[in-house]
Design goal:
Mean pLDDT: 91
Number of domains: 2
Structural class: alpha/beta
CATH superfamily of the largest domain: Cobalamin-binding domain
Radius of gyration: 23 Å
Order of helices and strands: HHEEHHHHHHHEHEHEHEEH
Number of strands: 7
Helix content: 40-55%
């Protein structure tokens, strides 16, 4: 499998936020980039040019004039960026996370993350930076600016950080405490970041969980009822189920899991957005934003 190493001017616009027209002007006026050209005079940019433009856009957004940036050597640009991390920490982190993605550099990702963790809570990093990063990468993937492998690389690194935070939260809970939640993704659903963060949030609030993970058929869940008299089942619908409505899935859950009053179903994710929370009965609860989960948990257990 080949990995994208050449980029169009539109790709550079998507990556840097600098308009293609402006990039062309900078090339002509300052010789900022050195694209290759096809026989039909279409620009193509290599990784060196792409990286340079990302660095240039970082400084430009910090208020540096392009005329000044153009006179700097690459080593000077890198030095200024490294000295900027305490001024615009979120912008700095996003810049380096994207660079880590293109270079498949987990060490740079870790260094950037742990620099953040010295000053910010894990929740703050997740909501303020990881969510913004994932949203931006999602757009880049959909427009063909990056390959799917870039998105998967960053997603897996983010998962690792959620698991690290989860282990700390889990170790703070009494080991003999009975699980109150069973977390799972529906059959063929593989988008796990939302569920992983929900698991972290529940544990951090002091509620023991059973984390079942992705791709769980409904008939697998009925076995938990044999072991636990009470349980809240928790799922996150990103792209699945796609062969039935959410309403039909809930009905199938109640039928197959035999969910009576002692067993609730909490749902999150893009598939439930816009649904009426009251239409599924008191045993099913819809939570529309991860930011609202903590308050929902606290309100439920008051």
């Amino acid at each position: 499998m080949s990995v994208k190493t050449e980029f169009s001017i539109k790709d550079l616009e998507n990556l840097s936020g600098i308009k293609a027209h402006t990039i062309r002007i900078w090339e002509k006026r300052y010789r900022l980039l050195e694209p290759k050209r096809t026989d039909t005079n279409i620009r193509h940019y290599d990784m060196v040019n792409m990286t340079k433009l990302l660095n240039v856009s970082f400084l430009y957004n910090q208020g540096y004039k392009i005329s000044k940036i153009a006179k700097l050597k690459n080593v000077d640009i890198n030095h200024i960026i490294s000295e900027s991390r305490d001024v615009e920490i979120e912008h700095y982190a996003l810049h380096h996370f994207k660079q880590a993605m293109f270079d498949f550099d987990h060490a740079l990702f870790d260094k950037t993350y742990y620099n953040l963790a010295e000053k910010q809570s894990f929740e703050s990093i997740f909501f303020d930076i990881f969510i913004a990063l994932l949203n931006e990468i999602g757009v880049l993937w959909q427009t063909g600016t990056i390959d799917p492998v870039h998105e998967r690389f960053i997603s897996e690194l983010i998962k690792q950080k959620i698991v690290e935070a989860t282990l700390k939260a889990q170790n703070a809970i009494g080991k003999n405490q009975q699980p109150q939640f069973a977390l799972f993704l529906p059959y063929e659903e593989i988008h796990e970041i939302g569920l992983l963060f929900a698991n972290y949030t529940l544990l951090n609030q002091g509620h023991q969980t059973l984390y079942l993970g992705s791709n769980i058929p409904l008939d697998n869940l009925k076995h938990l009822v044999k072991h636990y008299d009470e349980m809240i089942f928790f799922s996150y619908f990103t792209v699945k189920p796609d062969d039935q409505s959410v309403k039909d899935y809930i009905a199938a859950f109640k039928r197959q899991v035999k969910a009576i009053d002692r067993y609730q179903l909490w749902l999150m994710g893009s598939k439930i957005q816009g649904l009426d929370p009251g239409r599924f009965g008191p045993q099913t609860q819809l939570i529309f934003k991860l930011e609202d989960l903590r308050k929902h948990i606290q309100s439920y257990f008051q």
